[in-house]
Here is the input.
Amino acid sequence: MEFFYIIALIVAFNMAVLIYQYIYFRNSPVFESEGACVRINLTPEVRFHIELPKYLQTDSIVKLRLAGNCLSLVNETGNSYDLWIEPSHLKSITAQAEKAFVNAELCCTEQDETNYSVMHQHA
Here is the structure.
């Protein structure tokens, strides 16, 4: 019976943390410029597989690669930071990335390029 209480406590704690993160980050932009750095925030629309917030140098990102619902930020050495974006927010978050990393080139697969141009026409 104690096992049930421990599991219930763990579930309640995790729910409280998730609710707090949703309330705290729901209105913040994904990319925030802070001088020569850009801060990447965890928002409900984006999933990032490392600890956030993450700070990146604006001039270190040379390519923005869009493939499906994954936006990869590729740095000078070829390493990338992958952001998994909900499809309904793909257009706005990709536009935020283009503004934050002005020197980066946007690359899309052929399918995504068609989808991205359609998204820009509806903007």
